[in-house]
Design goal:
- This protein has 134 residues and is mostly helical.
- 66% of the residues lie in helices and 0% in strands.
- It is built from 4 helices and no strands.
- Helix 1 packs antiparallel against helix 2, helix 1 packs antiparallel against helix 4 and helix 2 runs antiparallel to helix 3.
- The chain is rod-shaped.
């Protein structure tokens, strides 16, 4: 997922330049697929603010019922913001994923006692005459 989102962002940044119309059709399809992917992951994770943002991106870039703005000067900031959002969601999910890995690693490993408290069971000397109050 991470390389695909990075590719979507780079293609959005390339959309700033004057390119043939076929590229922009490809960009619509690519960004729509990327937005659907992010929308699915954000809804399953409960991040509703990103879900709303990528739903707007999906509607704006959909290839089935395209929205034509007819001016390149309007699409340049939209492409830039969309590319930045794809990079943002890419790095935010990476940080959350590493935090989850650290939490699971901490939960699974038992904390080891300090060195001075570690003893092997066969080395313990048990005195039956001492009381348990000590």
């Amino acid at each position: 997922m991470k390389p695909f989102l990075t590719f979507c962002a780079l293609c959005c940044f390339a959309g700033i330049f004057k390119l043939p119309i076929e590229y922009y059709t490809f960009l619509r399809i690519l960004v729509s697929l990327g937005a659907l992917l992010v929308l699915y992951h954000t809804l399953s994770a409960g991040q509703h603010y990103f879900s709303i943002i990528f739903l707007v991106i999906l509607i704006l870039f959909n290839p089935v019922f395209p929205i034509y703005l007819y001016r390149k000067s309007i699409w340049i900031p939209i492409d830039t913001i969309t590319g930045a959002l794809f990079l943002l969601i890419n790095f935010i999910e990476r940080k959350e994923h590493t935090k989850k890995e650290e939490e699971t690693a901490e939960e699974t490993s038992e904390p080891s006692p300090p060195i001075h408290q570690r003893t092997v069971s066969r080395d313990r000397i048990i005195n039956p005459k001492t009381t348990k109050q000590e």
